[in-house]
């Protein structure tokens, strides 16, 4: 039986050691589909900062250093877990690392096509997500060649790392309020 969602998660932005405006991302092997940063539910790790430390180890094989909180925000995004009590969604806490130790290596279970991505690429991947939200890219095509995971579109927008119109934000939100 799947775990029940605790409605709390944390994500970690890990910068490239030589190019601090490039961040480590990967395509999810598990729902929700999309290019994402290391992210996990807090219940299994105890606190947002511990989640921000442990999930990168589990998903991309690195230990983030110098974590600082950059955003805390409620989003009505669904996940693959059994829904907990309404309202559905997650209290997100996003951290940015100053660096990391270890060699990046994808988790076989959770990650594929790991890569370094900059803000210009965020915009490119977000266009793919908005085209999917508008119905121009099918769910099958999006799964085959995903854009940014929908929740991360809103999070990066709120952090000032991505600019979306209100119409685009609402369209993308329609993707993440649906069950994966």
UniProtKB/TrEMBL annotation:
Domain spans labelled Nudix hydrolase: 5-139
InterPro entries: NUDIX_hydrolase-like_dom_sf, NUDIX_hydrolase_dom
Pfam families named among the record's database cross-references: NUDIX
Highest taxon of source: Bacteria
Name of this protein: NUDIX domain-containing protein
Organism: Streptomyces endocoffeicus
